[in-house]
Amino acid sequence: MGIDLKAGGRRTGHNTRTAPVSKNVYVKLLEKLFAFLARRAESKFALTVVKRLRMSQINNPPISISRLSRYMKGKEGKTAVIVGAVTDDPRLLEIPQLTIAALRFTETARARIVKAGGECITLDQLALRTPKGSNTILLRGSKNARESVRHFGHRTTVTNPHTHDGVKPRVISKGRKFEKARGRRRSTGFKV
Q1: In terms of Cα–Cα distance, which of 143, 132, 136 is closest to 121?
Q2: Whole-prediction pTM
Q3: What is the pLDDT of residues 17-49, one digit of tens each?
Q4: Which of 35, 85, 102, 105 is geometrically suited to a Cys-Cys bond with 110, CB 3.0 to 4.6 A?
C-alpha cells in the first residue's frame, strides 16, 4: 500500500497548538477573544498574540523593564505588548514613561512603571483600545536566557567539532576530583 505522504503521513512532531494547555481561565478567555479578532477582523497582530497565548511557559519567557525601555527608545506614544510577564530590574535607575500591555506584572515592576507616569494594562483592555494592534510594538523576552540553556550542546549534531564548545558541564562540585582530567586537559586524552 505505502504511506500517503502528501496527506500528511509519517509526519511526527510539528504540532501546532489549537488551544492553550494552561488551566488559567483568564488565558483561555483571552485566547478566545484574540482568536475571534484574528478570524473576523483578519488581524495578523491578533493571530500572533493567539499563537503566543497557546505557547508553553518555556516559549513565553519574561521580559525585564530594562530591556523593555531599551526596545521602546524612540517609540514614544506606542504601546508595548508582551504575551508573558514583565519583571523588575533593580539595576535600572530611571524608567521612562511607558504604556505596557502584558499578561502579568511583578509587584515591583508595576509599582515602578506607574510611579514613572506609565501605564500597566491587561491584554483584554488592549483589545478594547486597539483590536487590530495599531500603534503597538509586540515584544518578547529572551528564550535562551535560562540557566539550563548553558548546558545544551551544539544544535545540529554530536559529530560536529563544535558540539561541546563553550558548553557548561553539569558538575556537582568544582573541586580537584570533579571533571578535571580526561576531556579537560591535553595531557589526559583530549581537551574540549
Answers
A1: 136
A2: 0.81
A3: 899 999 999 999 999 999 999 999 999 999 999
A4: 105
HEC readout, the chain? CCCCCCCCCCCCCCCCCCCCCCCCHHHHHHHHHHHHHHHHCCCHHHHHHHHHHCCCCCCCCCEEHHHHHHHCCCCCCCEEEEEEEEECCCCCCCCCCCEEEEEEECHHHHHHHHHCCCEEECHHHHHHHCCCCCCEEEECCCHHHCHHHHHCCCCCCCCCCCCCCCCCCCCCCCCCCCCCCCEECCCCCCEC
pLDDT tens for 141-174 read 999 999 998 888 777 777 777 777 778 888 888 8
